[in-house]
Amino acid sequence: MFSSDMILDATLLPAMLVALVAGLLSFLSPCVLPIVPPYLAYMGGVSVTEMAEARAARKRALLAASFFVLGLSTVFLLLGAAASTLGRAMLVWQGWFVPAAGLVIMLFGAHFLGVVRIPFLAREARIEAGDRGGSAFGAYVLGLAFAFGWTPCLGPILGTILGLAATEADLARGTALLATYAIGLGIPFLLVAAFFPRLGGVMAAMKRNMGWIERSSGLLLWTVGLLMLTGQFTAFSWWLLETFPALATIG
After folding, report:
1. Which of 195, 205, 203, 202 is nearest to 52 (CA)?
2. In a domain, 251, yes or no
3. 64-85 tens-digit pLDDT
4. Which residue has the higher pLDDT, 218 or 133?
5. Residue 250: C-alpha distances to residues 2, 171, 246, 247 (Å)
6. Is the dihedral of CA 244, 1, 82, 136 positive or negative?
7. Does residue 247 carry a pLDDT above 80?
8. Does 51 fall in a domain?
9. Which of 36, 34, 19, 25 is nearest to 212 (CA)?
10. How many domains does the chain have?
11. Of the candidates 246, 251, 227, 107, which has an alpha carbon nearest to the alpha carbon of residue 167?
């Protein structure tokens, strides 16, 4: 088994923080947030109105959302393992691989900031999962389809976390990064399912501020890419430990 000291150290902690924030920003992206209520209602076999008014309907939606999150987490964990394995195979070229990954991530950030536009990343290659609303298995299948089908739209943010996982070149650490990303993306689905009526105003406000959210995403990606390009990501990790000594007790 992997020890906690192997998985959590000064280098990985800030990367996990980035992955958590990236997952949340993915949830808030224009291609995810607007479809959350109808997706949850469909998976639970209820209508959006029922989900807003009936507690029993929200319980069904919450159960379905749990299996949905399990489905998308399955895909992200597999992607994390694959990226880490690739990174391990490329250890001999690590000297240029990390800066190259940083440049690509900076390009993703520029896409979100509107400096450049990458048409492929603005499309969703949606995969239909059939008429499976109302069942746990169907929700799990939809989670798998969502993770694969929305990859082009989530590409800049997800690609950043995969790049970090690849530079880790360790299966446990890379998988931990993608698990953290899945938590950041999946937990909001569960919260919306559980507290849908109370969160309506919050979601509406987020939709009105999509431009700000996209720019924040772009700034995060550009900064992470710059740190990787200049080799300062590890230095940033140690700065975090010096500034917040309590982090050293984790694990």
Report:
1. 195
2. no
3. 999 999 998 998 999 888 888 8
4. 218
5. 15, 20, 7, 6
6. negative
7. no
8. yes
9. 25
10. 1
11. 227
pLDDT of 142 > 80? The answer is: yes
- Length in residues, the chain: 251
Q: How far apart are alpha carbons 209 and 215 in whole angstroms?
A: 10
Give the residue numbers spanning the domain of 121. Answer: 4-245
Tens of pLDDT, residues 29-61: 877 888 788 888 888 888 888 888 788 888 888
Q: How far is CA 167 from CA 100, 153, 221, in A?
A: 11, 23, 16
Query: In this structure, what DSSP letter does residue 117 have?
Result: -
> Is 250 part of a structural domain of the chain?
no
Rounded-to-integer distance, Cα 140 and Cα 25, Å: 22
Residue 118 lies in a domain: yes
| Residues sharing a CB contact under 8 Å with residue 215, sequence separation 6 or more, in sequence order | 112, 113, 114
For residues 59 and 211, give the distance between their C-alpha atoms in angstroms, rounded to a whole number.
33
Q: What are the tens digits of pLDDT across the range 159-218?
A: 888 888 887 767 888 888 899 999 999 999 999 888 887 877 777 777 777 788 788 888
Residue 102's alpha-carbon distances to 81, 128, 137, 181, 222, in angstroms, are 20, 34, 38, 18, 9
* Residues 94, 170: Cα–Cα separation, whole Å: 13
- Read off the amino acid at residue 153: C
d(CA 82, CA 97): 16
Q: How far apart are CA 61 and CA 23, in angstroms?
A: 21
Q: Are 241 and 125 in contact (CB under 8 A)?
A: no
